[in-house]
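Dear H.,

Thanks for agreeing to be a second pair of eyes. The structure we're designing against is below in token form, covering all 116 positions.
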């Protein structure tokens, strides 16, 4: 099933996760109270988890995180963003193919050296 299809399916999934969390953290008498459980579930699902999910999946947050993580590497943030935005599926497939060929070449070279 698709989890992140947005709208009601996403909210239903988050509510299910929230109900499980509430079962684990609430005392039994509080969890058995349907009004209290429903209130906690809606608050946690819609105002905490759903809002956090939407924030974390924004392009700004993702790009900022990638730039922050790459700040100590020789690759600059600007060149990283250029590379990510210029990538097309054909280029990615070609790069993966070339990497697989190189790995196979190195493996073949390693086995012939071990045989001697």
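And this is the sequence the design step returned. I haven't edited it by hand at all.
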């Amino acid at each position: 099933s698709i989890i992140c299809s947005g709208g009601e399916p996403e909210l239903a999934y988050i509510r299910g996760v929230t109900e499980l969390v509430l079962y684990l953290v609430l005392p039994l008498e509080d969890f058995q109270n349907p009004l209290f459980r429903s209130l906690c579930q809606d608050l946690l699902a819609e105002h905490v988890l759903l809002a956090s999910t939407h924030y974390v999946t924004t392009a700004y947050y993702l790009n900022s995180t990638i730039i922050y993580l790459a700040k100590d590497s020789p690759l600059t943030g600007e060149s990283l963003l250029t590379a990510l935005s210029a990538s097309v599926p054909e280029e990615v497939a070609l790069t993966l193919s070339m990497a697989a060929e190189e790995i196979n070449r190195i493996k073949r070279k390693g086995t012939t050296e071990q045989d001697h």
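Two observations from my side: The radius of gyration is 24 Å. The chain has a mean pLDDT of 79.

Warmly,
E.
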